[in-house]
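Report of the visiting student (M.T.), summer placement. My assignment was to run the structure pipeline on a short list of targets and document each run. The first record concerns Sensor of ECF-type sigma factor.
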Amino acid sequence: MKKYKSVIFLVFAMILWVNSYGQRGGNYEKIKSLKVAYITEKLSLTADEAEKFWPIYNSFEKNMHRLKREDLGKVRNRFKEQNFADISDKEAKEVLDEINNIERQMFELKQSLNNDLLRVISPKKVILLKKVEEDFNRDLLRKFRERRKQQFKERRN
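After the run finished, the structure tokens were exported:
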């Protein structure tokens, strides 16, 4: 019965997401709440596991987001602002070193997540988390594409 309630909740959350995805503002929070429900359901987290899992995972997500958006974003902005035909080898090496440093930090963050999660969930669930994240992202992208395709068709008519 508990499993059916979880599935019903997940389906309900997905329906709400599909209906509200096109609205501006708050999409990040909506997607995040769907991801929480999706991961909790797919990993079959107990209440005790979820209580310990989510602070670790949320901290990881926050730090990874910072590295991707802020740190790598700065490097990408430099690419946009400069004409790289005129860049020196020394400057190119500095950019590569910056990228390598950020990617190293991301790798270390992932290792830390795995080690921290092993203290609260089984190794099998840690591995399954990787697949569940990929599945969620794939489904999200597919729904986003379908929505954009539908909006494009509506505009043409």
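The helical segments are 2-20, 27-43, 47-81, 89-117, 123-156. Residues 38 and 135 are 10 Å apart (CA to CA). I thank the supervising group for their guidance throughout the placement.
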